[in-house]
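Lab meeting minutes (informal)
Scribe: AK
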Amino acid sequence: MSKNEKTMGSAIEICHVGKKFPVAGGYFEALKDVHVTIPEGKFTILKGRSGSGKTTLLNIVGALDVPTSGKVLIGGREISSLGEKERDNLRRLRMGFVFQAVSLIPSLTAFQNVEFSLRLAGIRKGRRERVEECLKMVGLGNRMHHMPAEMSGGEQQRVAIARAIAHRPQILLADEPTAELDSAMAAQITRLLGELTRKEGVTILMTTHDTGLMDAGDMIIELENGNQVGVTMKEEAGTLAEEAAGGALAEEAAEKSVDETLAENVREILSRETSGKGGEPRA
């Protein structure tokens, strides 16, 4: 764990989590001993092919399901042992959700859809200002009074993101939020999520199997057939790249120094071996 992670603290601790589902003749093991810590205020990508266990893990982190083994801690508190009412309060007050299916209320405007999430969270003071702030943050300041049917798929997903962050959650969970969008709009939505970690300080965990988006986060967790096969922090990757570049430059400088020394020695030998007028070699 880096110094930055220690300073910022851990938002999500996934401790040796396993998940089995009953099937005919036995069990299907969807997750196998997943163990990783996600620091606060980071945009984390949970990547892998379809069926790798991404959504299962996201549901467990979001208190929508419980692990068969292991545990999940949110802000240092284990959530799998909470009662249903406590889990509901956790989701409603401390988490935000963005899904592949946008699920906006079709009879409400963009403004009303976002405001509805604040009503559910029991927030009364400053609702209008916060709704406007969130819609402007996602680039829809001039579309807030439009109905969902009047908006593109990308705009609807932006409304869903504004709705998910309106109550200032500590954690935002996004399950394949770009799956129904074209590649350009998917890239825009992913950049927007990255910006929100800096503007709002929210910790974001997003699943994707889109190879073009897999390396967009500050942290990348890779799953394969329910196994955790890789965890990468962008800062660490950058440091390793810088060290490698520095090493290459040092090696290049050393090689250059050797070449110059050899050239100087050759010149000195030739100088000693030449004499007489015109620099003719000795007999």
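Next up, CB showed the second protein from the same session:
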Amino acid sequence: MRLLAFSIALAAATALASAQGDTCRTCGVAQPAATDSVAAPDTARSGSVLTRYDHRVHRYRRRWQSLIPTQTVVQFAGNMGLLSFGVGWDYGRRKQWETHLLFGFLPKAQSDRAKTTMTLKENFIPWSFYLKRGWAVEPLSVGLYLNTVFGPEFWQKQPARYPDSYYPFLSTKMRVNVFVGQRVELTLPHNRRKFVKSITAFYELSTCDLYIRSLVQDSHVRLVDIFGLSLGLKFQVF
């Protein structure tokens, strides 16, 4: 009787395996039953095997996902407006490169109206040292950024009302800036995260092409006169 029961159970298991197909030893995913026809190269034969089509879809999605911003940034001063807001992307093997797109606000002050600025900024952070309890310090950050002010008062090419070469190689529409700074980062514990992964506070000392030109041409301008201080916060979303 025991032998008969064992034979019946073995036959049932064999029939079930034939109906469902083999099971992958690596991932445990059921494989389809073998057939006489050969599957096309771009057709997935199982959930655990990636075909050329699957790889193409994966690359396509990965490239579009790289356009999703990973950071939000707020910065005070820095030759880009009184207050600037924007988004950023980090990349590189150690996430040491960052690109920020910021929009700033210039109050009316002594001009006729308030103005809006736009800044495209590239950062490089060569080192990051972990301290403890989620704290880390980045002793050096360097980079450059392009800044423009929206408005008819600013021009890219010298207007005809000025003598030739009155403003050589420089326009009032766009400024090229360089900076050096430092950062402190706090990475939040997993159970405390709601909207961001980490928060970074930073300061930067920056100058622009116009100030460097003044330093070279005017002996009364000192090196400390051409640098400005800016403060900011960076929120790492993921």
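CB comment: The longest helix spans residues 2-20.
No objections, moving on.
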